Amino acid sequence: MPFSAGFLTGFFPSDPVTWMQAGVLGFAAVLIYLLLFTLRDILLRTRSFWYQFFCVLLVGCLPVLGFFFYLLIRPARTVKERELETMLRVAGMMVDNDDMIDDDDETEIVEELLIAADDDSTPSL
Fold this sequence. Notes:
About 75% of the residues lie in helices and about 0% in strands.
């Protein structure tokens, strides 16, 4: 049986209202995805409620354009990355100033750093 264009017209609806409904449904799915991605990402990047609220509101009010604005204004690193950088900086200072820190203080500091590193404060949706 040869391929004919009649097959495609029978498969796809010709009613423009159906196409419009499919387009609105697709746009709504993209909007929900962008909102959830923004919410998850901003929860990982800052602890400021108002900044989180503003970013989610920005993406909700200006769906696609607001998401690109969000990508421009979001913090560069997550809270966990900043904490890790601080811990590494403190550990580097401990190595540099080895004579200023005695063994008991060093053990206490290392234990605190390990406890902070094991603390998983990642929010879940």
